[in-house]
Amino acid sequence: MSFGGLYSIEKLDDFNYASWAIQMRSVLVHSELWPIVCGKCIKNEEATAAESAAFDMQDEKALASIMLSIKPSQLNHVKHSKTSLEAWNSLREVYQPSGPARKITLFKKLLYLRKSEGNNMKEHISEFYAVLEQLNEIGVIVPEEMLTIILLSSLNKSFENFVVAIETRDTLPSLSALKIKLLEEGERRLENSKDKEIEDSEQALVARAGVTKNDSYANKNKSSDKKYANIKCFKCGKRGHIASKCNDVKKLCSNNASLSVLASATLNNLNRECWIIDSGATSHLCCERDLFSKYKECEEKIMLADAHCIEAIGVGEVNLKCGNLMVKLQNVLHVPSLKNNFLSVSKFLHYGLKVYFEKMQVIIKTEKGEVLMRAKRQDGLYVFRYSTEKCCGTSVINNNEVHWHNRFGHLNFESLAEMANKNIVYGLKFKSQQQQNKCVTCARSKICVKKFPKVSENRAEKMCEVIHTDVCGPINIKSLGGSRYFVTFIDDMSRYICVYFMKSRDEVFSKFKMFKEIVEKQNNCKIKVLRSDNGREYLSREFGNYLKENGIVRQLTVPHTPQQNGVAERANRTLVEMARSMLIHSESGECFWAEAVSTAAYLRNRAITKALTSSTPFEKWTGKKPCVSHFKVFGSLAIALDKTHKRKFQPKGKKLIMVGYSETSKAYRLYDPVAKTVIVSRDVIFVEDKYPGTFGTNNISDLVTFEAENQAEERTETEKVDNEDPEANEESNEQSDRVGRGRPKFVRTGKRGRPRKKRNMVNLLKAADVEIPNTVIEAMNSKYSHQWEDSMQKEYSALIKNDTWSLVDLPPGQKAIGCKWVFNVKQTADGGVERFKSRLVAKGCSQQYGVNFSETYSPVVRYATIRMLLALAAEYKLFLHQMDVSTAYLNSDLHDIVYMKQPEHFIDKQFPKRVLQLKKALYGLKQSGREWNSKLESVLIKMNFKSCPSEPCVYTRNEKGKYNIIAVYVDDLIIASSNMKDLSDIKAKIADAFDVVDGGSLKYFLGMEIEREGDVGSINICQSQYILNMLSQYGMENCKSVATPLEAGFQTYCDKEDCERVNVTQYQSLIGALMYLAISTRPDILHSVSKLAQRNSDPHVEHKIGAKRIMRYLKGTVDYKLHYQKTGKPIQGYVDADWGGDTNDRKSYTGCAFVAAGSVFSWESKKQNLVSLSSTEAEYVALSTAAKEAVYIKKLINETGFN
């Protein structure tokens, strides 16, 4: 905006308030209006009429200046302001709030500010002072000495010497003095880096091809010399020229012969199969003709660093084997006169690869971050050694010392030798200690400070007498299951380690209860002492009361004395070092740390320790000597038998990666980096000296929950009954988790060995990555055709087995309705694929009322009722489980006569023209839902459940003070019970009646992620993964977050004809996605989404911007959860009205919320149907709405028996 042609400023928008405020203040000062705007000059009530008019004129002028300097989208903030002071303050409150949250955010930003390598010093200091200025503007004054310390702390490691020099002074410099020194140091380093670039370019081993010696000494005119004014010659040390133009070059020419000899001698130390990474080479150069796969003759001259020319006689392609990848080098020049081969850095960069130079190696990676090759530094050169070995799936590795060291997770050589000599384990073939202290991976992973002097301790004499415990974390990178911590429990007598993974420290108590339940039942002993540090996770009142109730003595260390908890501290350190060693050795991604820790615990329990020199923890714990002959190197190449249907000449083996050992069967856990799945298999051939490298990604958002963490939690130490047989290759006969008629019933009984809920296959594929086909042809042509065909076959077989139809001739006068296959994938809580689903659906749209259907209504449970049930479960400590009835509709008989065409892909070859007379209520029929609901209700009534009149899909059975409740949403069931035995009995009876999938503890229901502390603790519900998927779908995963869903006073009405319209379908889809979230778990966005939904039929661009603002708000609040816990408080209701909230039709808005167990479970926001003449009337209308909901809640509470 221009002011009188003298100056102009950028108009205010959502992002430039800081610069706008400074410039606008200057404009107002220049116009002598600032005293009025800032409030220093106020209107005098005793002033004359002329003076008042003059003041009002100046105020209006200032207000107009502000209004004209902001964009139209910001006018909502100031359009009701009557004075310039009000307008200025309104804008400052919006864009520069001064509340505690703003102060904390800015101070944290200042505190965590760090200088990056690519950022120069001027930019860094400017960013520092910008944040400091924002703090000053909201009244936060930071002491200068503290600012000096913060600025020093913000420097990266390359400034370590500079920081040390400042710290060694008696007094710290002032902030301004430090700023000057940093700017000078930054300029000096920038200058040095330019000099180094010149030196490096002149000292490159291979110069640019085709350049002649005379060219190097051309252009000696004065204009050419000016550009070297600030450059230092690396030969004579003087500034003003480069080495090639140095006047002292003749003095150095006599040394050229010795220099060439030295370089030649250095190269002679390498064989002709080595490749040197050269940053000066413009082409790949090869001296060996035999290495070319394609070749043609050519003539090209190449100039070396000493201006000597050599000749290339050919060009072609060379294949280099890097790990398990074959890299094709194109346009490689054949130069027989060279003694070595050279790889061009510039060529790598040209093809999109990334080259990282480190002190002792060069790493070349793909665009996705996968390591392609590593070149080690040798005599000043970076050398990549080319391997001519072929990858052979049947090669056998000898049981030598190095492999056993790697298989045992880099256990020290002394312990391995001792275990072999004393025959402590079976299957270990280890002969000597010659490799001792020669493992580079161990040196990198385990280097530490010197040990503390050993303190004598009293060892426990019985198992479970003393349990040591400690928490490790937070780990910087989340595991694939989202964990950031792990807790260990170590038995003092046997030193047996149990590991549990956690997302937060608050889970320690539930993990201890799980550990106690397992070990006491498995080992027939009682825990007597729990020894831990003073972490808050161990000091909760609930934890303390639990220990007292079970007669367990708590022993705590003295604060800041971790040595007193040495057993647990050392165990955690050992596990971390072993895991780190395995990850480094196999070049695996850090996000696999939990899998490595789980494997480390498995290995450590089967190795000797300093506390047990004659046996292993496993032997002390189980009474059996472990067998280790099945141990393989973590991260090594595994060729597994592919049991999927293959054609005659397709490979039978599949390349996978070894990531651990199955706890429930004698088999290995293998990761498939292509399909992103983990399988359990025994039919494996290992190539232990081959490491496929990084497991594809370190990005957790690209992966879904991994199984090892759940496996660690669900261990029941089955080693007590498993045969530790050297032939640990027996196929696991793990059964399906389905139960019901014709299948084994997996319900909790008194027998040991409860089957696991999960299948062997753990799918790491994202559901969003699977394209859902619309037709059978699309399914059969997709890359998941085998999965879709298998799911179709399972569905069809289930229909046949269930006697769903009869194949008959179509009677005259009758019409057969069509059918189609519907495809989908069932997701896990974190967005992964649990299984592929195909469903045969009847085309019920062609049914006729009164002919082949009559009644259709079928109820489902309300979302508010589900949340109320969760709140009651947290308040009354109820167990919560879930079940899914498979092909639910097919369990109900069809009472109408319906004919249907045969399904595509399964047409009877003998009777292709016949039709199907349906006996069961197939999906898609109009009456199927009603028939299924009637069938389920009849089964539950036989189990003595009764339906609640106010909520027909909630069934209760309360007897003798025990609560049993079932909530039904079509074929998904939530079962709540105050008694675990009753719950198991209910699940068993349902399984007798239907074919069901037992989901175990409630974790994911109707798109809601449900987390619970233990079995009967507090409950969190959220939809974080749904939000992330939605942001990704609309391309907003990297958007900036905002503090509120919509701006205050946002209105949806717009009658401008020239307003830009947006696509109605896309807008409705976006609003629908947000509305689903708002009615499920996010009451904070319901009012905003309801407002925008009013424009579903005619959306303008500003409405779409509003919807996107809600998504920006969700980006910043993705982890918000509803938290229910025991409070002892009654249900409370809140209601309010926004009188005249819609400025167009003057109708008001109603908002109400009901709270139980510490969080909201029922909420509503809607526009009132009438125009209220006063705020009182609007509030009475809102009270009426809330009263209806309150009556319903009270009635339902009474019907369920919670009075």
Written overview of the protein:
By secondary structure, the protein is α+β, with helices and mostly antiparallel strands. The protein has six domains: about 1-95, no CATH class; about 100-185, no CATH class; about 215 and about 225-240 and about 255-385, Cathepsin D, subunit A, domain 1; about 415-720, Nucleotidyltransferase, domain 5, CATH 3.30.420; about 765-1020, no CATH class; about 1025-1200, no CATH class. It is about 35% helix and about 20% strand. It has 33 helices and 42 strands. It has a seven-stranded antiparallel beta sheet, sandwiched between helices. Strands 8-3-12-11-10-9 form a six-stranded mixed beta sheet. β11 and β12 form a beta hairpin. α17 (about 440-445) packs across α20, α20 packs across α21 (about 595-605) and α30 runs parallel beside α32 (about 1100-1115). It is globular and about 95 Å long. The relative contact order is 0.04. GO terms for molecular function: aspartic-type endopeptidase activity; nucleic acid binding; zinc ion binding. This is Retrovirus-related Pol polyprotein from transposon TNT 1-94. Keywords: Aspartyl protease, Hydrolase, Metal-binding, Protease, Zinc, Zinc-finger. It comes from Ceratitis capitata.
